[in-house]
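Exercise 7. Predict the joint structure of the components listed below.
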Amino acid sequence: MALEKITHLDRRYIYILLFFFVSIPLLAPLKLPIPISEHTYGVYDTTNAMSAGDVAVCSFDFGPATIPENRPQAAAWIFHARELGLRIVALAFWAGGGPIGEDVLRDVYGSDFPNIPEYGTEVVYLGYIPGNEVGMQTFGDNTQSAKGTDHYGTPIGDLPLMQEVTSAEQVDLWAEWTSGTPGEQQVIQFVQGRHGGPSALPIVVGSTAVSVPGMMPFYAAGQIVGILNGLAGAGEYEKLMSNDYDYPFEQGPGLDAQSVAHVLVILFVAVGNIGYAIRRYSGGES
Amino acid sequence: MIPPELDLFAAIFGVFVTIFIYSFLWKENPLSRAVEHLFIGLAAVFTLAFMYDAALTQAFWGTERIAEGNFIWVIPILISLMYFFFFSKKYFFLYRYPVSIVAGIMAGMMITGMIQSNFIAQIESTVTLPLVGTGVWEGWPLPGLDSIIIIIGVITALSFFFFTWEHKGALGISTRIGRYFLMATFGAAYGGTVMARMSLFIGRLRFLYETSYADWFWAWYLVPIAVLCVIIVAVWQRSRPTPPESEIPPKKQKSKD
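Solution:
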């Protein structure tokens, strides 16, 4: 029976099908509607509720492997924060996040970054802070103990913004772009938990989709106030930014491709299980 | 960051590396292996260099560091150098001291951090779920229904890991329900994994389709050439004479001890 045979299908046919079905929307975008999720609104509303001059930490805790998901999330959010007049302390607790963070900041602030007038007062980039969880906790307790200089070798004490931000007590919002450990859970444990809890230091997260189910208990408990879920979350935030500001909505074709790929995966799972059930109940091997 | 003058080189290199690594899906081949090894080597060197630089920055430069006479930073440097006794048979025991210190610090930090954020805060949010009050049973989805599902899920999933009594009777029913909740969680995690992997694949395809340089070069121009390289290597690999069985060294048997 055809459905039984499908369970023995060479996986390479599935790869070829996926390649074509993902390519089509990328080359000819379908422009499917993009509903904004509650979790994305959590990030957007929390950021909007900040006042100009508030301090936000922006932590690039991801590596090159998850650039397609984390990078557009971070770029859209930093753009939003800059438009609202938030002062940004950018850093990375992942070694791989160091250069990526700089690249994202150049995208938003221009290729002259850090040689821009607002560097040091409106935005600083500390670069990679070593020590994982220990580095995070140290930064939360005393920013100058965590890192002596910024990413460009300027002593932190010489930066006006960092003279004000001496610990997490002065931080009003933490934006965490993460794809693993250390990530949002470590920020909750070692920074938020030690500095007043969720009400004093709200955390918004942009994460790779793999990690999002594990974050839901923290979201339900209010320890995280908003989540950008993978590429979809990035696209939704870009959509919100393009509605409010002159921000390019670039993830549309990617979201179309993802929708098509998911339909295909659902079909594969359904057909594979039907074939398995037929084989099992017709007396074949299980 | 890649300097603009190297954009073209980066694009060309990126296309070949992408196609070579994806050729693994068809079959493992020398090109996919070479790129895999390249990635591992680069990642190791990058991390090492970054860590080295960061450690120097941390210990020597900036405010309140050795350079400004704060010699307390000498202590962690000396302790960290003890890691190198790993390579000495005679002084290997000294390697255990930095490991013990790090393990102790991490255990202490984790216990205090996790008890508050993963234990107390989670219990607090579960016991304060709204079951009565204004708006709890109004509209759709009902907030009250969400609360009941979460409470049932927490209790039954916890009972699944209760091993003092045999899972029979009321406990058996609870653990069975708990197992369904756990399965739903694994399903959500699998869905998230599929979504993440697709995003990465889409990211690579967008790189191939959209990367361009100075209006005359598009990355996808090189895709057929990269594919051809894979085919040539595959044909070459297939045409190589296989050594006679007598020349293949026997595999080492694992000791049963």
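Discussion. The radius of gyration of chain A is 22 Å.
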